[in-house]
Design goal:
The chain contains 6 helices and 13 strands. Helix 3 packs across helix 4. The strands form 4 sheets. A 6-stranded mixed sheet has the order 1-12-2-8-9-13. Strands 4-5-6 form a 3-stranded antiparallel sheet, covered by helices on one side. It folds into 2 domains: about 170 residues, CofE-like (60s Ribosomal Protein L30, Chain: A); about 70 residues, CofE-like domain (CofE-like fold). It is α+β, with helices and mostly antiparallel strands.
Length: about 260
Amino acid sequence: MVRQPLVLIPIQFPTVRPGEKLTKVVHNCLKEEGLRLRRGDILAVVSKIVSACEERIVKLTDLQVTNRTSRLAARWKLDELLAAAVVREADEILGGVNGFLLTMKDGFLTPNAGIDLKNSPPGTATLWPLNSDRSAERLRRNLEHRYHTRIGVVIVDSRVTPLRLGTVGLAIGLSGFSPIRDHRGVLDLFGRPIRVTQTNVADDLAAAAHLLMGESSEHIGAVLIRGTPTRMGTIRRGQFAKMRRQKCLIGSSLVGSEHDIR
């Protein structure tokens, strides 16, 4: 069987100002690169760009430090204002290491509720989009209308993997394609039916894009992924890739010291 080659095209972005229109920014950058979206393309977009357009940037000095945030900051050696931001954004705080709190946020296990000081204007912190699936859906619909084709969108942030150094890509929101490929019932190399394996296509694509996006001053705000083996469909969203904590090998084993459920 002849397979279409997978192509990843990095797209340069300017520094995005808070409140800019995301679709317009993306379209202008595609045009600057001489690119047009085609049917089946997946556009991976850096979450910080989405957050900036949605004005999900907070001034740290506007946050209130409480006894509880001071206690967390002292215990895990965090800046008190960063700790205040994490407490405000996290659904649950499970523990931490020096400089980071281990949190649950929007169904993800992530450091500091996804909040980042890096590549955020001085004195500010950048938060995740309020609803990343909804943000991806809006961008996908707008781009499909503009380019008259069917595409997928994935919003990418970085995450750490247990017992591994460094960050990899994470799909915190998506629209337009199925995030999971189910292998259950398919026969393996020795003719045995596969019982549990599913591939997280969304995170695989996010990781591939993240490799080109970088983590510092690269200005790669999006990656156009062409030739992906994905199932397209307008109702697809990231919720389909999430697992209940009770069923997760790692999540079910976590016992937090704070249990800060909002």
